[in-house]
Amino acid sequence: MQYEITLPADYDMGVIRHRVATRGPALDAFPGLGLKAYVIRERGVDGSPVNQYAPFYLWTSPRGMNAFLWGDGFRGLSADFGRPAVRQWTGLAFERGPAFEQGPGFERGPGFGAAPRAASRSAERVPPGTDPAAAVERAADRLKELAATPGVHSTALAIDTHAWELVHFTLWADAAPDTAPDRYTVLHLSAPGAATLETGRHW
After folding, report:
1. Contact call for residues 160 and 89 (beta carbons, < 8 A)
2. Model confidence pLDDT, tens digit, residues 163-172
3. Residue spans per domain, the chain
4. Which residues does 190 contact at the CB level (< 8 Å), separation at least 6?
5. Going by CATH, does the domain composed of 2-194 fall within 3.30.70.100?
6. Cβ–Cβ under 8 Å, residues 11 and 59
7. What pTM was computed for the model?
8. What phi, psi does 86 have (nearest 5°)?
9. How far apart are CA 60 and CA 39, in angstroms?
10. Is the per-residue pLDDT at 112 higher than 70?
11. What's the burial of 88, exposed, middle or buried (CB within 10 Å: 0-12/13-18/19+)?
């Protein structure tokens, strides 16, 4: 799940940093949450044309997601920024990377290795006339290969079967590669269920 709040070009992103620093830990033990990466993009940084707050979630259960969306957390965000469109995908695969268990030099996360500092996201359409099962197989194979890359904390593959769009989201111990279409700074990671997220293909 992800929502994107695009902010004015001259917006003080320190406001978002303070918000995350003071409110982010509230989800560190949220039931049903695998992980929430509090990520931002800043205009002129890592090729971003916008200022944006765009947290990304992996849920271990629909109950947890519903509890968040219909609870005080999302209500408060909507009151402050307006209700954003919330995108949801069906999870296809999840892998832990080398940085998941290795934390020297990095802030320690809540019980699961190094807290990542960066994230990347890419999306690809499954073209009409393409066998979607074959496209998903290829994407899952690439995810497995990516997970072995030094610096990867964890990586996920999901699909929107309405738009037939695959999304790849990866957390990085330090910096995301320059080739990633969307690169983010991770301000905080709430990950109460990260160690229990099912790895491999989810079918």
Report:
1. yes
2. 999 999 999 9
3. 2-194
4. 24, 25, 27, 28, 30, 33, 35, 36, 38, 110
5. yes
6. no
7. 0.92
8. -110, 120
9. 20
10. no
11. middle
